[in-house]
Amino acid sequence: MASKLIAIVAGVGAGTGAAVARKFAKAYPVVLLARKPESFESLANEINSAGGKAIGISTDVSDASSLKNAVETIKKEFGNDVGAAAAIFNASGPFLRKPFLEIPPEVFAASLGVSATGGILFSQTFLPLLLNGVKQKSEHPPSLIFTGATASVKSNAQMASFSTGKWALRALSQSLAREFGPQGVHVAHAIIDGVIDIPRTKEWLQGAGPEAKLSPDVIANDYWWLHTQPKTNFTWEIDLRPAIEKW
Amino acid sequence: MASKLIAIVAGVGAGTGAAVARKFAKAYPVVLLARKPESFESLANEINSAGGKAIGISTDVSDASSLKNAVETIKKEFGNDVGAAAAIFNASGPFLRKPFLEIPPEVFAASLGVSATGGILFSQTFLPLLLNGVKQKSEHPPSLIFTGATASVKSNAQMASFSTGKWALRALSQSLAREFGPQGVHVAHAIIDGVIDIPRTKEWLQGAGPEAKLSPDVIANDYWWLHTQPKTNFTWEIDLRPAIEKW
Amino acid sequence: MASKLIAIVAGVGAGTGAAVARKFAKAYPVVLLARKPESFESLANEINSAGGKAIGISTDVSDASSLKNAVETIKKEFGNDVGAAAAIFNASGPFLRKPFLEIPPEVFAASLGVSATGGILFSQTFLPLLLNGVKQKSEHPPSLIFTGATASVKSNAQMASFSTGKWALRALSQSLAREFGPQGVHVAHAIIDGVIDIPRTKEWLQGAGPEAKLSPDVIANDYWWLHTQPKTNFTWEIDLRPAIEKW
Amino acid sequence: MASKLIAIVAGVGAGTGAAVARKFAKAYPVVLLARKPESFESLANEINSAGGKAIGISTDVSDASSLKNAVETIKKEFGNDVGAAAAIFNASGPFLRKPFLEIPPEVFAASLGVSATGGILFSQTFLPLLLNGVKQKSEHPPSLIFTGATASVKSNAQMASFSTGKWALRALSQSLAREFGPQGVHVAHAIIDGVIDIPRTKEWLQGAGPEAKLSPDVIANDYWWLHTQPKTNFTWEIDLRPAIEKW
């Protein structure tokens, strides 16, 4: 039965999402969701070549019909009674760090579309699979994990096009933790408070030393740790930051 | 010059919005925004009959073009260089207190449309008028006040279709407070933590005594107090609840 | 009856405490508590000369017997059935902004002695008088107001000798608000987030303009506003900061 | 060198402290601190019999001289240059859940003495050993972990004699995390939000099922997970509660 349990990761790219997918692929077939195939193709190949199982599905999490298509593809691949051991929402929309009055409404719409609406639609789509995972007596409680940021708890000047969606996502995760915890699904929220060490940030914080940025592989370990917590000891929220970070 | 300064209230109906409009109408011409004319017509008449000045404009705050129309109407009425002494966002979208998986995505969309997108569009529309108010040396710092709720700081089970938007709105208010405070605009957020005493809640909390519900007139006084704070002492956030409330 | 209602202010000096005392002296006889007579003598004279009524009592709020003496003095002056309309705890202990390992334990003890133990003892001493105020049907709900600081909600590096006591005091105020609100006493906490404009800070923030510091007189107005809130609309917490403050 | 690294656990008894000590004893010699020898004697025997190394020292964490004696004993046992890999503060003072005005000041003093003063003195005593652990290049960053509770973030009516100390302790942990993180010491705070499954609570929550209480062994695993986080990914705070807990 455990063979039916999969892990879904939304928002795979060069950073946290990919690291999380690699980590969970050691235990489960993984479904990689991203808008563009180039975001998941090489990762899926890598996992499949290493003896794991991964499929990528082009998906726009802010679009209900796109998520519906994703589920149909998943069921074709893994069966109609597929259960999920983990669903990880790591997607973020675009935003602008600019004076509020200079930000086009479309930017807010796109950011809220992913962080708020996307989080909601992703949860409505995959919670039934996670509840299936509960029925199938998964080894670890099925887990729904959301990636947050500094802007999930602090809304700085000029950051509203990011923070509005991130606060909404945190609210979602807290409500779901309270509703689905008693049903056996572990809902958690991780506040990533710092720069993550990925290709795009290679030039950042030069000179601050090799430990000035968060390691995506360690974030993946932390998500795995959340996933393995038993029902007696669920964590809703963790914060993660480099030791030298000012906060 | 002060004659050019107006107050705008979005979300007038039978409760807080109307009380706030009445209060601010004692000092400023007021613009009443609501989707349906029946929400503001009798209130506008009442204020105008009492010697104040009020106009109502049918407006959907979740729709940029509707807000654009509202501003054009305002400028026709009060001049192109109109400034605002206060803009109060008291609108809320519909929501359902139900199991998460039973809530149609449209409900989330409508709720976020008002609380998140509506708050953003309202702010982008009226902050220029508030900044005009600063230039015109308003007696009190021009104020942008948002109405929050218990669900702005606590996201309970089955409340996600309300709390996601309310957390987003609170994030917006915090970011704007930090950006526009130094420019002279006072941005504040009020957490209304309890049942408000309005016709719709008449039958609620019967037997708990006459002080078990929040008075909308007193909320209006509290908003006026926020409005009159000088630049040395700005409050971003207040909570308001009946003395007997459990929290 | 109202003649029996007094206001007590602990921690009067050159700043907030004195301003609060002056403000409340317009409505009530005030009792000024400070360790050293020089902290309250000229203030008491000023209030008495202006037609108000003030008495000062040398009191160490961290010492139960000293507070007991204060109450005896108060009862001698105002009668055994004296009620209080307001009790304002504005005292703070000494602290050091220094590396944690360089701070003598005595500094922590003194700081906790005032902010934590002092807050507790002050409340145990004067809540009976405030409850008496409820019985005597005071015009405004008797109010117990605590002065907090930035360090009440954020505990920065090297600030532990201040923040530990301030967090304890905030916890006290929240618990008391929940317990005594239903009994008619309004318990509130004010987060003063910035530099207050007092003689000691005269040279601070020079060049940042006349509005860079909090006005103690306006803080006093804010406390008075809290005091006049009716039982339908109690605020537990407000924050106060200059418009230009970074936060 | 690693042989010099020890773990110190304050507040060992039948629950979390003992489980944490057992867990850390698999990697380090452990020092068990409790006021009464009967709290640590059988645990020390158990660990020593199982091939680990444990010593117990009668210590009152609210008393600086008692902690000084503890350090002297430790240095006699492990050498003057002993370093610590972990120091875990799990002590709590007595408190009363009662109307505020019925709680003797001595109860507040005892509770603050352990949670606030005890936390401070424990940290001042053992941070030098943790910094020694940094110098000795411990495998995992030396960790200072504090046990919090629901009352660390929520201060309910009648709970002030517990929450005041717990909020102070949380403030301490946040300040120390900010000061000592950059120096290589990982400071963390765990909010234990529920009933822990220990002999004393055996009769509690009967009928709510075997997963209604927190497992102390799993709390110990969670602390170990915190301890093994590398410097790129430090968590300051986690919450822990049973899946079925209402919160």
From TrEMBL, chains A, B, C, D:
SUPFAM superfamilies: NAD(P)-binding Rossmann-fold domains (SSF51735). Pfam families: adh_short. This is NAD(P)-binding protein.
